[in-house]
Amino acid sequence: MRDPYVIITAFLAGETTDEENRELVSWRCKSDENNMLFLQLKELWQISEAKSGNIDHRKQILRSRIENGINLKKQLILQRKLNVYKAYFAAAVIVFFAILAGLYLFYAPQKKGADQDVIFKTPSGQKAEIVLPDGTHIWLNSESVISYSADYNKNKRKVNLVGEAFFDVAADKENLFEVYTENVCVRAYGTSFNVKAYKEDDRSDISLLEGQIDVICNANRSIIADMKPNQRLQIDLNNMKYELIHCNTMVDAIWRYRCLKIERETVPSLVKKMERWYGVDIDWKDSDKNTFLYWMTIKTESLTEMLELINKITPIEYSINGEEVIMRNK
């Protein structure tokens, strides 16, 4: 592959050929470091759009960043630890530079054998984008874990999820793509969908944006739903009853654009979303007395600004001590 920075710049400008696109995908899949470098440049490109809509100018911004001595590889800080057997890599913390400050990706690549797993984790308040060996893109939400076998894509495409993730699956009619949560399996060939399956939640949601998917019960392997676009499957995890509804599923996946959508949320649901979004622990005193349903959209608002928004809707008092938040109804 010729200079990857040249191809990446052309790709971001929409000027690459099909062959160059394949080369870029291959280069990104060769190593996690390559993929992270691509994501950093992509972030720079998107930020430059706010400064100038001119393609040539944005190319120059990207080029000057590279030529002015910004060594992207050195700005990717990887901390590795070995366990007592020195056989596996433990969770590593990847800290992007200032533009990507706040995004932490815990990566535990256990690659000693084909039967071992590659694991990605996101801590509270953080998100990450992952590209699998087949080109499938995964956006991982806060407090989530994705794992897959080291021989992924050789025999089958299977990943395990705890938490929430958005999947943009690379099309492959010969090989199914499967997402396993604790209770269900989502099966697809090539499509876009969101899966929310936190262990501590009472409900799991599967939302389809494009294509078609099957949702299968892990317990008896029966098909729960054959889903079409703009459908959300809501599963009550207490009794495994489910409901298939029609809705704007873009809302369910909007979090990957750093936007938190609150729609008809009760206090317990709102608290969980806030904790994951801001990476804090919230204790809302007497919350059972508050039956209000909340509607709001959060983009760049700080935790304090979010609390002030809630205060305008339902008067509250609050205190913030580091990562601990205490709220009381007035």
How would you briefly describe this protein structure?
The chain has 330 residues and is an alpha+beta fold.
Main attributes of the structure:
330 residues; alpha+beta; Jelly Rolls; Phage tail protein beta-alpha-beta fold; 3 domains; 16-stranded mixed beta sheet; 21 strands; 35% strand
Q: What is the rounded Rg? A: 21 Å
Spans of at least 5 consecutive residues with low confidence: 67-112
Between the first and last Cα atoms, what is the distance in angstroms?
Answer: 63 Å
Largest sheet: 16 strands, mixed
Can you describe what's shown?
Helix 1 crosses helix 2, helix 2 packs across helix 3 and helix 3 crosses helix 4. The strands form three sheets. The chain has a 16-stranded mixed β-sheet that branches. Strands 18-21-20 form a three-stranded mixed β-sheet, with helices on one face. Strands 17-19 form a two-stranded antiparallel sheet. Helices cover 24% and strands 35% of the residues. The chain has three domains: 73 residues, no CATH class; 179 residues, Jelly Rolls, CATH 2.60.120.1440; 71 residues, 3-Layer(bab) Sandwich (Phage tail protein beta-alpha-beta fold). About 14% of the residues have low confidence. With 330 residues, the protein is an alpha+beta fold.
